[in-house]
């Protein structure tokens, strides 16, 4: 005869034997695979997954602005985080319904005759969310890889930032399982989503959006007007990823414990998960270190101390380390603008220096002051689209007035000259004129954007500029070079510039306000 050693099981569960452990682990995995397939077939999850993938592909290949051809990868990784949020909500609701399926259909009593305890079935439901998170990770990888392969891409992405999207989906699914064990009602998950959003909004308003509170939310996408160098971001991305992973594991353990899974393994995993969650919270809640603040100050106030310069032709181009490969494109714009100038401007040596203001962090929306240094042109960290004609206006301003500050309050023929130099060599000058103006118009008073302070123009100046841009380029270029000295004089009026350039003289007098 042979005997089988039987372990004492808690009341309400079937007795287990050592020989049953491996088959039961396999059964848990088998149930997890089945529930994962069911998860993908649920209409909300399937629809949100298709929508997520379609939107990502559309963003990559058809729906972006020209500026997106020059991405900063330290911003591109954060851009992947908020897109899976709707998918995460769908996974939360469907995971919750999957756990409650037997209750809704009245088959709970049938499970009592099975050898798989409720806590093992709960563990299987928690594991069933993992494949959806893996698919999310694949979409994130596709998105970031395609962005990184663009010829104009600069900077460095963070694996921890890229992990936030998949971890958010995993966390939401596990939360749905836990809610089903704590509140066995199909209305619990939708009410939790709505209540969580309302509570988060109220807490943010009450606590003035404190740093520790912001980072308790799964997705924290700081967004500024200009990309910062990777080493100046100051985001606790690794700590946040640890916090999300630890919280997901802790919620899964809580669901298993709520279902009666009080084993040594579950207890050990729970302790480890809580420790990881606590470490993540502590790490992401700490303030910005003094070294980061000093580095931001240095890069903002004394950029020449952290930049390297390259020479193209007679000009120097100075950039932060991650942007040095973009200097050739800046040089092409300078060459195009300089080809339209006259007098001694063609021989003027320029120093194009990249500038930013990182002292106030990622969310700050700051404006750079125009440089008073002769021959110095400011360029930002964003490129493409409207940033190209904006930089061209800055180059033309320095070639005409000597420095950026001298043009900031100009209201004379120099405004017409600067705008012609900046836009005259464009393939579509009128379209560039619309893009560079804040109001997207070609008539009336307005302002032209530059990397520093905008350049104001009156309605009369806008009329002259429009007439010039509609005329053949070479004829206007010859007149600009022939009358260069008078066109760059602050004493020359807009009406006189129109006469010199052979365009209709605008009616009225210049009112030097945008």
Per-chain topology:
Elements: E1 6-7, E2 16-17, H1 21-41, H2 43-61, H3 73-79, H4 85-99, H5 101-104, H6 108-111, H7 118-127, H8 130-148, H9 159-162, H10 164-182, H11 188-206, H12 211-214, H13 237-258, H14 264-285, H15 290-301, E3 308-312, E4 315-319, H16 327-338, E5 351-354, E6 376-379, H17 387-401, H18 404-407, H19 413-423, H20 429-436, E7 446-448, E8 455-457, H21 459-470, H22 473-482, H23 484-487, H24 494-500
Parallel strand pairs: 4-5, 5-6
Antiparallel strand pairs: 1-2, 3-4, 7-8
Helix pairs in contact: 1-7, 2-4, 2-8, 4-10, 7-10, 7-13, 8-10, 10-13, 13-14, 16-17, 17-19, 19-21, 19-24
Describe this structure in words.
The termini are far apart. β1 and β2 (16-17) form a beta hairpin. This protein has 24 helices and eight strands. It has a four-stranded mixed sheet. It is mainly alpha-helical. α1 packs across α7 (118-127). 39% of the residues are buried. The chain is elongated. Mean pLDDT is 88; it is low at 1-14.
Question: What distinguishing features does this structure have?
Answer:
mainly alpha, four-stranded mixed sheet, 24 helices, 55% helix, elongated
Short characterization:
With 514 residues, the chain is mainly alpha-helical. 55% of the residues lie in helices and 5% in strands.
**Alpha carbon gyration radius:** 31 Å
The strand count comes to: 8
Share of helix, binned: 55-70%
Q: Which stretches are low in confidence, meaning pLDDT under 50 for 5 or more residues running?
A: 1-14
Which class best fits the helix and strand makeup?
mainly alpha
Strand order of the largest sheet: 3-4-5-6
Q: How many helices in DSSP terms?
A: 24
Shape: elongated
Termini separation comes to 101 Å
Average pLDDT number: 88
Percent range for β-strand residues: 5-15%
Largest sheet: 4 strands, mixed
């Amino acid at each position: 005869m042979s005997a089988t050693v039987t372990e004492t099981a808690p009341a309400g569960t079937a007795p287990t034997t050592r020989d049953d452990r491996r088959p039961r682990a396999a059964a848990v995995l088998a149930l997890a695979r089945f529930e994962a397939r069911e998860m993908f077939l649920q209409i909300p999850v399937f629809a949100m997954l298709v929508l997520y993938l379609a939107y990502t592909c559309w963003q990559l290949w058809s729906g972006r602005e020209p500026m997106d051809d020059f991405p900063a990868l330290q911003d591109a990784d954060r851009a992947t985080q908020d897109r899976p949020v709707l998918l995460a909500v769908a996974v939360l609701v469907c995971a919750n319904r999957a756990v409650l399926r037997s209750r809704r259909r009245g088959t709970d009593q049938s499970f009592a005759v099975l050898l798989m305890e409720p806590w093992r079935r709960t563990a299987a439901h928690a594991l069933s969310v993992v494949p959806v998170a893996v698919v999310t990770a694949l979409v994130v990888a596709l998105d970031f890889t395609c962005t990184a392969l663009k010829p104009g891409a600069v900077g460095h992405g963070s694996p921890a930032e890229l992990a936030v999207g998949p971890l958010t989906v995993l966390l939401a699914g596990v939360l749905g399982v836990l809610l089903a064990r704590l509140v066995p009602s199909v209305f619990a998950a939708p009410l939790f989503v709505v209540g969580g959003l309302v509570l988060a909004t109220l807490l943010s308003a009450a606590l003035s959006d404190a740093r520790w509170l912001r980072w308790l939310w799964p997705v924290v996408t700081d967004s500024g007007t200009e990309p910062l160098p990777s080493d100046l971001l100051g985001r606790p991305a690794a700590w946040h990823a640890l916090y999300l992973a630890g919280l997901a594991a802790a919620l899964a353990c809580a669901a298993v414990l709520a279902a009666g899974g009080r084993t040594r393994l579950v207890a050990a995993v729970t302790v480890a998960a809580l420790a990881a969650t606590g470490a993540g919270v502590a790490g992401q809640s700490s303030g910005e270190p003094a070294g980061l603040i000093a580095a931001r100050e240095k890069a903002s106030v004394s950029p020449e101390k952290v930049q390297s310069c390259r020479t193209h032709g007679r000009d120097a181009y100075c950039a932060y380390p991650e942007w040095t490969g973009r200097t050739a494109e800046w040089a092409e714009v300078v060459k195009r603008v300089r080809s339209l100038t006259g007098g001694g401007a063609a021989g003027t040596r320029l120093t194009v220096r990249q500038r930013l203001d990182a002292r106030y962090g990622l969310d700050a929306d700051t404006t750079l002051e125009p440089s008073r240094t002769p021959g110095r042109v400011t360029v930002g960290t964003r490129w493409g689209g409207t940033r190209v004609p904006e930089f061209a206006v800055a180059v033309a301003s320095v070639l005409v007035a000597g420095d950026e500050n001298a043009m900031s309050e100009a209201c004379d023929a120099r405004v017409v000259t600067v705008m012609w130099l900046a836009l005259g060599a464009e393939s579509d000058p009128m379209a560039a004129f619309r893009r560079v103006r804040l109001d997207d118009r070609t008539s009336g008073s307005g302002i032209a954007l530059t990397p520093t302070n905008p350049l104001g123009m009156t309605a009369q100046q806008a009329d002259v500029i429009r007439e010039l841009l509609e005329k053949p380029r070479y004829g206007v270029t010859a007149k600009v070079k022939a009358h260069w000295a008078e066109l760059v004089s602050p004493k020359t009026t807009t009406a006189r510039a129109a006469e010199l350039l052979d365009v209709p003289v605008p009616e009225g007098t210049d009112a030097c306000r945008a």
